[in-house]
Amino acid sequence: MNFPVLQNDLILRAARGQPTERAPVWVMRQAGRYLPEFRKMREKHGFFDICQTPELACEITLQPIRRFPLDAAIIFSDILVVPQALGMVVEMRPGEGPVFPEPLNMPDDLDKLCSKDSVEKLQYVFDALTLTRHKLEGKVPLLGFTGAPWTLMSYMIEGKGSKTQAKAKKWLYQHPEASQKLLQMITNLNVDYLVGQVKAGAQMLQVFESHGEFLTQELFDKFSLPYLTAIVEQVKGKLKADGIPEVPMTVFAKGAHFALEQLARTGYDVIGLDWTMNPESSRARVGNNVTLQGNLDPCALYAPKEELAEKVAKMALAFGSHRWIANLGHGIYPDVDPDHMEAFVEAVQKFSVKK
Ligand SMILES: Cc1c2[nH]c(c1CCC(=O)O)Cc1[nH]c(c(CCC(=O)O)c1C)Cc1[nH]c(c(CCC(=O)O)c1C)Cc1[nH]c(c(C)c1CCC(=O)O)C2
Question: Does the first or last residue of the chain, that is N or C, have fewer Cβ atoms within 10 Å of its Cβ?
Fold first, then answer.
């Protein structure tokens, strides 16, 4: 596809364990509501209309890249496009977030899902990736992503945000086989979806297990880890079989602190840490063969800029300069002042320089 030559490969080197002059930095949800130019776009267009229109998704992906000296762009989309591709309706309601008008209630409801040709329904994401990779002009690598099977399953059953995920967890206890059938269906689509994203131009991939925090270790071992592992193994295997150079893959399992050692053995190149994790003890637990990503408290961006810079300096010391991708410990919040986002990025660049 003759993509422009990449000029900044810091994040790819950090992910592969190669030396970097300083830590690469990007921010989860960096393209979003904290930016006035995004909110302006949302006044005119529906959320999923933007996702489905490559020119608009590309424009929003580029917005944070124009403002801040970031080391990666993440394609503008949402994890919930995967349930949509399986035939479910998802609406983005103002003030409420994503809502499924007809969530899955009982195992029989799985028959309503349509896994045939579902990856083709995501062609608009592939088109957005290809367009954005060109429009980035090689400035920074383009990241693709998907939601992990458990996180997507829980949305499909709860139908909206939930404080406990009790409905979804009820399936794990009462309908373990149907749960595994659903998780496998999502895994299969995710594998094709991520391979398609790389073919379309994604240079690195992240899998978001945002609802890891609701699982016990036992539930995680049974209903999350095997599917996260299958995804990395199959995506890397399929790319290899198709003669396509492998791309680094990140897993972000929020709240799954108990699973760090296991996650480090799955084959992901990068493990994302949420803000509750200690960088030094996490490094001791995972060893030196994986890269860590994270993990400043997203609320630290509310602190005065000087204090924010001090917190970044402390974080940089704790992670060390090798195999670290600087990020927040979860997505940036919508009421963060963009100037403080800039202060965060600049502080990483200043304090993560290799000595
Ligand atoms: C759980 C989850 C979702 N979506 C996502 C996750 C995993 C990351 C995480 O844990 O935060 C991932 C996501 N969602 C969005 C991106 C785009 C790329 C980026 O900037 O990182 C990414 C990577 C855009 C978005 N996704 C959404 C918005 C705001 C919607 C709007 O404009 O009305 C954006 C910019 C909507 C969305 N989508 C989702 C929720 C819960 C919400 C509403 C609340 C919220 O905004 O956080 C589901």
Answer: C
